[in-house]
Design brief:
The chain contains 9 helices and no strands. Helix 4 packs antiparallel against helix 6 and helix 6 packs antiparallel against helix 9.
Length: about 230
């Protein structure tokens, strides 16, 4: 069954790509998303004071996994404002594998520290929205990684429609990233974070994770929005 699908950036038909202000706003947004992801990771790592307790490593590992590695693993495919724009498509794919592998390792490590901390303090597991969303995010991340492995080994697994699988992988990746963003925002309502950050700074932290999410969502939609339906 042959499949034919074309993907084009949103606004191309309106000539938006020729509008210099639109182009520069997109570039600035992508650069700001890089800075926001890195900044959130560094600030959360400083606030958690790693090494002071078992729990202190949990925010560090999770922010490295989702605020930094997952964000960079997606934004590196951007053609506007990405530090990896000089690399070939294959080079970007390999960097994407590396970033997502770091996501899995960092997230698993963060989960381990959280479980150990709960066991030591004899506190119950999975009693907050943040913990429930966190488990859902981890499961979704693992499933998304499995989908990525299917793409890497598509010849070995005899995948019949790689373009369709790539579309599913990108779409599910967006869902995973948005779920991770909701989990990070839910962490802002935890007792630890509210005791550490207060006032206007708390509101700023609450809004910061939403900006990279909007940039990532725009990038994936622009890259994979179909111009015409898949025919079979």
């Amino acid at each position: 069954m042959p499949s034919d699908v074309e993907y084009s950036p949103v606004g191309e038909g309106l000539g938006m790509r020729d509008f210099w202000l639109y182009v520069w706003m997109r570039r600035v947004a992508v650069i700001a998303a890089h800075v926001t992801g890195l900044g959130l990771t560094l600030i959360i790592s400083l606030l958690s004071r790693p090494g002071t307790s078992l729990f202190s490593w949990h925010p560090v590992c999770m922010s490295v996994a989702y605020c930094l590695c997952m964000t960079e693993g997606i934004l590196l495919f951007s053609t506007e404002g990405s530090p990896f724009c000089f690399k070939s498509r294959q080079g970007k794919v390999r960097l994407h594998w590396f970033c997502q592998a770091l996501v899995l390792v960092s997230a698993a490590t963060g989960l381990g520290f959280m479980v150990a901390s709960k066991n030591v303090s004899e506190r119950p597991h999975l009693v907050t929205w943040h913990s429930l969303l966190g488990v859902a995010t981890l499961v979704a991340t693992a499933l998304q990684a499995a989908c990525g492995i299917c793409l890497v080994c598509r010849k070995l697994l005899r995948v019949s429609s790689p373009p369709r699988l790539k579309l599913y992988h990108a779409t599910c990746g967006l869902v995973v990233y948005l779920l991770a963003t909701v989990t990070v925002v839910a962490a802002m309502f935890s007792d630890w974070f509210q005791a550490t950050v207060k006032g206007a700074a708390w509101w700023a932290f609450l809004l910061l994770p939403l900006f990279p999410a909007l940039v990532v969502m725009n990038q994936i939609i622009n890259a994979y929005l179909p111009r015409k339906k898949i025919t079979s």
